[in-house]
Amino acid sequence: MSIAPKYFIADRKNWHRHLIIYLLTIIISLGLVILNPPTAKAESASSKQLESIKEVTPEIILDQNSIPSPTQQANFVTTVSKAVEPAVVQVNVSRALDGVFLPPFFGRQPGNLPSQPTLRGLGSGFVIDPNGLILTNAHVVNQADEVTVSFQDGRLLNGEVLGKDPVTDIAVVKVEATDLPTVKIGDSDRVEQGQWAIAIGNPLGLQETVTVGVISATHRFSRDIGIADKRIGFLQTDAAINPGNSGGPLLNAQGEVIGVNTAIIGGTQGLGFAIPINTAQNIAQQLISTGKVEHPYIGIEMVALTPEIKHRLNQIPNRKQRVNQDHGLLIVTVQPDSPASAARLHVGDVIVGIDGQSITKADTLQQLLDRNGVGHKMQLELDREGKNVAIAVIPQSLPLDPAYPR
């Protein structure tokens, strides 16, 4: 799911131009949601000064009885960090810059070839399997020619990227090792606003850095924080997260991983975001099994209706198609050769329900798509020019071709 301005398509040129002006005004103030494939580049990052953080954290199995709650012991953070840190790793990556050569400072010496510059980076990760499986962010290992993993005990092992998913920013790295310490996985569906949050990682290469805060919010969707090319909900925390933390674990007071530290908003303090561990685990299992992830899509762009938007649209001069619903998802674009096109969804249709469930937010539609999966029919209830219409649509796998139209 992504966000980008599009135009409402109609059958009259004159009101089409008026409609474009109205929609642009509405979109600027209220936003437009797109349910189609992302492009290769993350948009809105510069405008919101979004910085990806680069680290990952290993998994560790903790005895619940050995981790006192904050009310039982003031230094619960110390207890958690000591238990989890052995499973948190630093992920080191390097990539040669092809075709780029820097001239030697004193001129080229006879017989010497120009050196090829290498781009280096680091992030964090955590062990999820004692036989060498490490969870991290996809942006940490993206386009890496070489991956090495540093452990707390001093070991430096070569890593292989088993798979990465740019849509959710999750990757799995494999190292040749056994009996590694692993983290204990929590349940991110049970995370509540205000509970303790502990982040462990390697910000700016400072290994085993521990910060603490709370869960500031749950269900922050990617469009809310300016990551328009991702399709995921985030946990928000004020635990300090910095570049190099990406891929590291976000923990609860019991030492369980509840999220994967992923992003911060630059120029601010206390605005960090983590991928919920339930989502990360699901993606990781697919990457481990098949090396790829399928994401369902139907290929529409839409805007969530409110009484205000309805009123504005209906005030457009010479508009032939009235909006009759105060709430729902107004389709403003149907992508060619998409499941929506095949199902004959129309620009101007308002989605009011799916499989009997009322729909007022694009995020809800995306969640239902992800839950149903690729190839599973969904029944859409529509308002089409004041008439109730039911149409079946079969989601297909999201194209990842950057050339695919948004």
Automatic annotation (TrEMBL):
InterPro entries, per database record: HhoA_HhoB_HtrA-like (IPR048172), PDZ (IPR001478), PDZ_sf (IPR036034), Peptidase_S1_PA (IPR009003), Peptidase_S1C (IPR001940)
Keyword presence, Transport: no
Membrane-spanning parts: 20-38
GO terms, biological process: proteolysis
Domain PDZ positions: 287-386
PROSITE patterns referenced in this protein's UniProt entry, alphabetically: PDZ (PS50106)
Coiled coil: none
Record keywords, A-Z: Hydrolase, Membrane, Protease, Transmembrane, Transmembrane helix
Enzyme class: hydrolase
Molecular function GO terms recorded: serine-type endopeptidase activity
Top-level taxon: Bacteria
Pfam families: PDZ_2 (PF13180), Trypsin_2 (PF13365)
Gene3D superfamilies: 2.30.42.10, 2.40.10.120
Record-linked SUPFAM superfamilies: PDZ domain-like, Trypsin-like serine proteases
EC numbers on record: 3.4.21.108
Family that this chain belongs to: Belongs to the peptidase S1C family.
UniProt name for this protein: HtrA2 peptidase
Organism: Stanieria cyanosphaera (strain ATCC 29371 / PCC 7437)
Lineage of the organism: Bacteria, Bacillati, Cyanobacteriota, Cyanophyceae, Pleurocapsales
